[in-house]
Write a structure and sequence with these properties.
Distance between the termini: 175 Å
Order of helices and strands: HEEEEHEEHHH
Largest sheet: 6 strands, mixed
Radius of gyration: 47 Å
Number of strands: 6
Oligomer: single chain
Helix content: 40-55%
Structural class: alpha+beta
C-alpha cells in the first residue's frame, strides 16, 4: 500500500509540474502576442555585444518596446535585431536606432531618436529582402570613437618623422654656417657702421630742430628780426 501511495504522489507531482510548465509557457507566449506595438527590424554593421533578447528599446529615454530576437543577417555581415515597439509614428523614415550603454552597469539597449536634419546617414546598405519594416541604424558613439581613433593613428603613422628630423638638422646646420660665415661677419660690420651713421644723422637733425625752434620762438617774439638786423626803436608817444 505504501509503495502504491508513493508512486501515486510521484505521478501526481509530475503531472502537476508539467501542467504548470505548460501554463507558464502559454502565458508568456500569449503575453508577448497580446503586447501592443508593431514589429520592426534594424541592422547593425558593428558588434552588438551585450544586447540580448528582451533588452529594452527606448525612444529618447522612454521605454517603448523590447528586443525580440538577434541573429546574423542573410548577407552574413550585418546583425539583424527584431524589435516590438509600441509607438505610433513613421519609424521607418523619421527615426534611427543606435546601441547605447546604460551607465557603468554595461547594460546595452537600443535608443530610438529622430533623424537629424541634414545629417548624413550611416545606416548600412541592405542587399537582401527583409521580413519586417526596417528602421535605419546609426553607428554607436563608441564605434565612431574607435573609427576616428584608427584614422588618427593611421595619419600619425603616415608622418615621416625621420625625414622631418633630418630636415630640421639640415636647417639648423645651415643657419649656424650662415651666422658664422665671413659674409655674415661683413654684413654685421656694415650694419654697425650704418647704425652709427644713423645715430650721427639723428643727432644733427635734433640740433637742427632745436635751432629752428629757437628761431621760431624769436620770430614770434620779434617779427621785425625777419627783415632787420635789430629791432626798430620804440615809437615815441604822442604828446
Amino acid at each position: 500500500m505504501a509503495s502504491r501511495a508513493t508512486k501515486f504522489l510521484i505521478g501526481l507531482f509530475v503531472v502537476v509540474g508539467s501542467v504548470l510548465a505548460a501554463v507558464i509557457i502559454i502565458w508568456v507566449g500569449a503575453a508577448d502576442f497580446f503586447t501592443k506595438g508593431a514589429v520592426y527590424a534594424t541592422y547593425f554593421d558593428e558588434s552588438v555585444q551585450g544586447l540580448q533578447a528582451d533588452s529594452t528599446v527606448k525612444y529618447r529615454g522612454v521605454a517603448v518596446g523590447k528586443v525580440k530576437s538577434i541573429k546574423v543577417a542573410p548577407d552574413e555581415r550585418l546583425i539583424e535585431v527584431v524589435m516590438k515597439i509600441d509607438l505610433s509614428s513613421d519609424l521607418q523614415h523619421r527615426t534611427e536606432a543606435q546601441l547605447k550603454t546604460s551607465g557603468i552597469t554595461g547594460i546595452v539597449f537600443i535608443e530610438l531618436d529622430q533623424i537629424r536634419p541634414g545629417e548624413k546617414s550611416s545606416s548600412p546598405k541592405i542587399s537582401f529582402k527583409t521580413r519586417y519594416p526596417v528602421i535605419p541604424s546609426r553607428r554607436s558613439e563608441i564605434s565612431r570613437f574607435l573609427e576616428d581613433t584608427n584614422e588618427i593613428m593611421k595619419s600619425i603613422k603616415a608622418i615621416d618623422f625621420k625625414g622631418l628630423s633630418d630636415q630640421l638638422k639640415s636647417t639648423t646646420l645651415a643657419v649656424e654656417n650662415f651666422v658664422s660665415g665671413k659674409q655674415t661677419s661683413g654684413m654685421m660690420s656694415n650694419l654697425e657702421s650704418t647704425t652709427a651713421n644713423i645715430d650721427r644723422a639723428m643727432e644733427s637733425l635734433r640740433l637742427t630742430m632745436e635751432n629752428l625752434q629757437s628761431f621760431s620762438e624769436s620770430i614770434n617774439e620779434n617779427p621785425s628780426e625777419l627783415f632787420f638786423k635789430r629791432p626798430p626803436p620804440p615809437k615815441k608817444s604822442m604828446e
